[in-house]
Structure formats: structure tokens, C-alpha cells
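Morning. Coffee machine broken again, so started the prediction first thing and wrote up yesterday's gels while waiting. Chain of 97 residues, entered below exactly as on the submission form.
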Amino acid sequence: MDQKISVKVAGRTFNLTAATPELEALYRQAAEAVNKRFSSFTRSHPGQSAADLLSLVALSEAVIRLDLQKDIDRYKEAQAQLDADLVKYLRDDSTIK
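Came back before lunch.
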């Protein structure tokens, strides 16, 4: 069931629809994270416009996302190698008996 929610980001209120309670929680957590990063950039870059600060937030979040994606790709490669090693081990072990 869709739930109408409001979240505040950088002082502006956005009305959204969350399909699940889990999605609502994610929207609220995301808004909180953006607001924290926005506040941090507001302190470290005084005098910048809200649009510039939100651009910095978007850029920093994108960097984090890309870095995490690289980690995921490395883990997938390691998992594939472990799977291949396990299959080889089991195949070799079964032929010894």
C-alpha cells in the first residue's frame, strides 16, 4: 500500500510516495544523510549557494557509490574464483577415492 510521506532536504519539503514501509524508512534515512552532508558542506564552504552545496553532496555521494561498486565487483570476482577453486577441489577429490 502506497504511503504519502514528506521529507525535508536542505530546508525544502518534498512530498513522496513510498510503496512499502521499508522504502519509507530508506527515504527518511537518505534525507537525513543528505542533510548531514549538506550541513557539513555549508560549514566548510560558507557563502556557497544551496544549489552548489547540493551539487557537492551529489558528487560526494556518487564517489562513495562508485567506490562501493568497485568493492562489490572485487568481491564478485573473488567469489567466482572461490567457487571455481571449490568445484576443482571437489572434482579432484572425488577422482582420488
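The helical segments are 21-44, 50-96. Going to sketch it on the whiteboard this afternoon.
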